[in-house]
Amino acid sequence: MEEQLNKLVSDCTAQISSAANRKELSDIKVRVLGKSGELTALLRNLKDLPSEERPEAGKHMNIARAALEEKFAEKFASLREEEVAARLASEKIDITIDKPKRDIGCLHPLSSVRNRIIDFFVSLGFIVTDSPEIETDYYNFEALNTPADHPARDVQDTFYITDHILLRSQTSTGQIRTMEKIKPPIKMISPGRVYRSDDIDATHSPMFHQIEGLVVDKNITMCDLKGILDMFAQYFFGEQCKTRFRPSYFPFTEPSVEVDATCNHCHGSGCRVCKGTGWIEILGAGMVNRNVLSGCGIDPDEYTGFAFGMGLDRITNIIHKTDMRAVFENDIRFLKQFK
Ligand code: PHE
Helix, strand or coil for residue 72? Predict the structure, then answer.
């Protein structure tokens, strides 16, 4: 039996060391140490030995079993390491390899100009609101003090969906929607798309963008409007930029003004962009009409406010010397210039 044991141990040791992978190794282990394995069978035969030899033989077998188990464990560990190393080597990524360059896009010029404008007003504590593009005539006209016979209501100018539903022609609708929801003090801007029944040319488009502004509080005066717009013009066009107010008319503001900034291309001396005047019109504005405030449930004797509305496309076209068609055609060669 002693001989059988020694042979088994040396055969098994040889097999362990030549096992190529963990599966092969565990097959060997089952064959030798498993329930019906070779060593287990030898152990069972112990009972055939004379009783005085049994303890000694049993001891040898247990030592042999423990030694083999240790060898299996060592080999398992080293095979595992080899397999992991082989896998790591096969999965290695060569990060030095050349690959085709990918084009990174950029914001549309309208988006980046809009974002810059929003950043300025947000830094002064204005909130940014959104309002629907499909509106009722109440929000687009009536609540904005625009009487039924006003020319802007004409189908020549406004796209109607039904008699009372239309595509908003101005973001001033956002003034009403805001004043219905929040009470003064109010400081908000509202950017968005507007629609007018115009043919497309260098300065017109049936769809364009505006940014509305509204401030309502106690003791708001036209000086506040002028102060904020001066700051805005300097932030946007540069410190040398000046603004001027020209009297104008909007049904929902009284008094109303059109605001010009010194031309950012010639700084006032006159060039093609400003058609030789040195000034460019940037927005319409005014003090919120009393009727508009009271229509929204705000007491015009207690509160005053100003509003302004600027054409985003217009401002973008001025600073980039482009025109409406280029801005809306989405020609990649044109858009790529704004990286
Ligand atoms: N809504 C006006 C327009 O579209 C601009 C404006 C806004 C004027 C707010 C005054 C106050 O022309």
Answer: helix
168 near 195, Cβ under 8 Å? Answer: yes
Listed residue (263, 313, 331) closest to 113, CA to CA: 313
> Of 210, 228, 250, which is best to mutate to test ligand 1, by the most ligand atoms within 8 angstroms of its C-beta?
250
308 C-alpha vs ligand 1 centroid, how far in Å? Answer: 6
Among 276, 230, 232, 280, smallest CA distance to 258 is for 280
What digits encode the pLDDT tens for the residues 207-258? 999 999 999 999 999 999 999 999 999 999 999 999 999 999 999 999 999 9
Tell me, in angstroms, the distance from the centre of ligand 1 to residue 168's CA. 12
Residue 274 three-state SS: coil
As a whole number of angstroms, the distance between CA 81 and CA 71 comes to: 16
Atom of ligand 1 nearest to the CA of 171: 1
Place of tokens 């010009």: 260
Closest residue CA from atom 9 of ligand 1: 308
Distance in Å, CA 301 to ligand 1 centroid = 23
Query: Which pTM was predicted?
Result: 0.71
Buried b (16+ CB within 10 A) or exposed e, 218-255: eebeeebbbebbeebbebbbeeebebebeeeebbbbee
Whole-number pLDDT of residue 240: 93
User: Which amino acid makes up residue 14?
Assistant: A
Q: Whose CA is nearest to atom 6 of ligand 1?
A: 309
Q: Residues enclosing ligand 1, CB less than 6 A?
A: 170, 172, 250, 253, 284-286, 307-309
* Cα 253 to middle of ligand 1, angstroms: 8
Both tokens of 296, joined, read 């929204």
